[in-house]
UniProtKB/TrEMBL annotation:
Compositionally biased region (Polar residues): 285-304
Keyword Oxidoreductase: no
InterPro entries: AraC-bd (IPR003313), Homeodomain-like_sf (IPR009057), HTH-like (IPR037923), HTH_AraC (IPR018060), HTH_AraC-typ_CS (IPR018062), RmlC-like_jellyroll (IPR014710), Tscrpt_reg_AraC-type_HTH (IPR020449)
Upper taxonomic lineage: Bacteria, Bacillati, Bacillota, Bacilli, Bacillales
Name used for this protein in its record: AraC family transcriptional regulator
Keywords: DNA-binding, Transcription, Transcription regulation
HTH araC/xylS-type domain segment(s): 187-284
Keyword Transferase attributed: no
GO molecular function: DNA-binding transcription factor activity; sequence-specific DNA binding
Entries under Pfam families matching the protein: AraC_binding, HTH_18
Region (Disordered): 281-304
Length: 304
């Protein structure tokens, strides 16, 4: 713990891993109880700094606006935006914070309803958020391996953003409200099929898992995509099989990796879809001297 003369208590925990160009990188996290009227700024940061107040009061200024902050409120400092904040003169705040960067950091905050136009929000249970902040700090301290410290603290950071999103559910980005229920159902179904295509799939089971009636789901899926769910699944599997036929996998291995445990049935389906058997399709490829070692687990599907 570091000692700071203008604070009753001040703790900061640094992430030992530099995130570089990562999607979301936790830089450091801390907790502080400053003296009355302790002030920071006017200044700017080159990272995002999120504070949650767990007790007391203070004020926060940014974007030519001044906010009165109290327990349960969170205020966010955005990169290269002038800010200042000050503890109350009689009941100074105690707050927790995290600093983050990353190429998708602003996008992920926006998904949680946080942006430069809404840098302050309230309604939190301070104790609940304090547990998450504490888990972030503990993760940074309790691992001998720096990459594991980064991995766990980053996971807790996402949990924290998820909690912020729940608090801001009524003020999510406008684009989120433009998605109709039908579009949402189709998007969920497509994502299900794109990730579960290797498994045995029935429309009835999938609809039940997603919370829709089978007939209704099939109808809106066809209306929006022009395909039934099973036709869409067949398309995904065939595209995946074509990718794998560029490698040195056997036909049986290609079949199993495309969602067909029976290679003979796979061959019939492939011929029906392409007009060629898997073997003939492979022969038709130019420069197809691939090998099974070229397969990248989790490679993206070719989607239409």
């Amino acid at each position: 713990m570091l000692e700071f003369p203008e604070h009753y208590e001040f703790r900061v925990h640094i992430n030992p891993v530099r995130g570089g160009e990562s999607e979301l990188n936790l830089l450091f996290s801390g907790a502080a109880s400053p003296h009355p009227l302790h002030r920071i700024g006017p200044a700017i940061h080159d990272y995002i700094l999120i504070h949650t107040v767990v007790s007391g009061y203070g004020s926060f200024e940014t974007g030519n606006r001044k906010y009165r902050i109290s327990s349960g409120d969170t205020f966010v400092i955005f990169p290269n935006v002038l800010f200042s904040y000050e503890a109350d003169g009689k009941q100074p705040w105690t707050y927790l914070w995290v600093a983050v960067q990353g190429r998708s950091a602003m996008k992920l905050l926006a998904a949680a309803g946080i942006g430069p136009d809404q840098p302050v929000f309230g309604g939190a249970e301070p104790g609940k958020l304090a547990v998450i902040y504490g888990s972030i700090r503990s993760s940074l301290d309790n691992y001998a391996s720096d990459p594991l410290a980064d991995l766990e603290s980053g996971g807790w950071l996402r949990v924290l953003l998820g909690e912020f999103g729940r608090l801001n559910a009524g003020s999510l980005p406008p684009s989120a409200s433009l998605v109709t229920e039908a579009e949402k159902a189709v998007e969920q179904t497509a994502r299900w099929l794109q990730t579960q295509y290797v498994q045995p799939i029935s429309v009835e089971q999938m609809a039940h898992s997603l919370g829709y009636h089978r007939t209704h789901l099939s109808k809106i899926f066809r209306r929006i995509t022009g395909l039934s769910p099973m036709q869409y699944l067949l398309q995904i599997r065939m595209e995946r099989a074509k990718e794998l036929l560029h490698t040195g996998l056997t036909i049986e291995q290609v079949a199993a990796s495309s969602g067909y445990p029976d290679p003979l049935y796979f061959s019939r389906q492939f011929r029906k879809a392409t007009g060629l058997s898997p073997t003939d399709y492979r022969r038709s490829l130019s420069g197809s001297a691939g090998s099974a070692q070229n397969v990248k687990p989790g490679s993206d599907l070719q989607q239409k």
